[in-house]
Amino acid sequence: SRVAERLHDELVLWLTTVTPGGQPQASPVWFLWVDDEILVYSRANTPRPRNIRANSRVAVSFDTDGHGGDVVSIEGEARIALEQAAAADVPPAYVAKYAALLAAEGWTMASMLVDYPVEIRIRPTRVRAW
Predict the structure, then answer these.
(1) Cβ(74)–Cβ(124) under 8 Å?
(2) What confidence score (pLDDT) does residue 130 get?
(3) 79 and 129 in contact (C-beta within 8 Å)?
(4) pLDDT digits (tens, 9 = 90+) for 43-62
(5) What is the mean pLDDT of residues 126-130?
(6) Between the CA atoms of 110, 112, 113 and 118, what dihedral angle is there, to the nearest 10 degrees?
(7) Whole-model pTM above 0.85?
(8) Does residue 65 register a pLDDT over 90?
């Protein structure tokens, strides 16, 4: 239940993809847990979507509680769901979750998608929590 709570409540998780040469690359991302998948939006011409196209195996994790506890690590299979997402494609729960951060950046959902149009979906295959 703690994993489900964090998937719902956390604003940022760390997504690790792997380059074609085998180098792991971690980056913080906004996300939404929807339809038993982790939904992420990404810039188009960056390593993240290129890495996923070359190797769909990824890992995601949350920050700890500051003392090394409350660890959640999720392994999964990622796919590019949409190359050019439109505001109408974005689940309302994503918009609601990030409304304050979007506003703070001076974005609407449509303007954010100009910079982050690639919709990535991650299906968890293994979850570890301790």
Answers:
(1) yes
(2) 87
(3) no
(4) 999 999 999 999 999 999 99
(5) 93
(6) -160
(7) yes
(8) no
3-state secondary structure the chain: CHHHHHHHHCCEEEEEEECCCCCEEEEEEECEEECCEEEEEECCCCHHHHHHHHCCEEEEECCCCCCCCCCEEEEEEEEEEECCCCHHHCCHHHHHHCHHHHHHCCCCHHHHHHHCCEEEEEEEEEEEEC
- For 70-104, what is each residue's pLDDT tens digit? 899 999 999 999 999 999 999 999 999 999 999 99
Q: Which two tokens stand for residue 17?
A: 């993809």
Quick count: other Cβ atoms within 10 Å of Cβ 112? 21
Q: What is the C-alpha separation between 49 and 56, in angstroms, rounded?
A: 10
Q: Do the Cβ atoms of 38 and 124 come closer than 8 Å?
A: yes
- Compute the distance between CA of residue 3 and CA of residue 9 in angstroms, rounded to an integer: 10
Residue 1 has pLDDT above 90, yes or no: no
Cβ pair 25, 19 in contact under 8 A = yes
Name the one residue in this structure whose structure tokens are 């951060």: 101
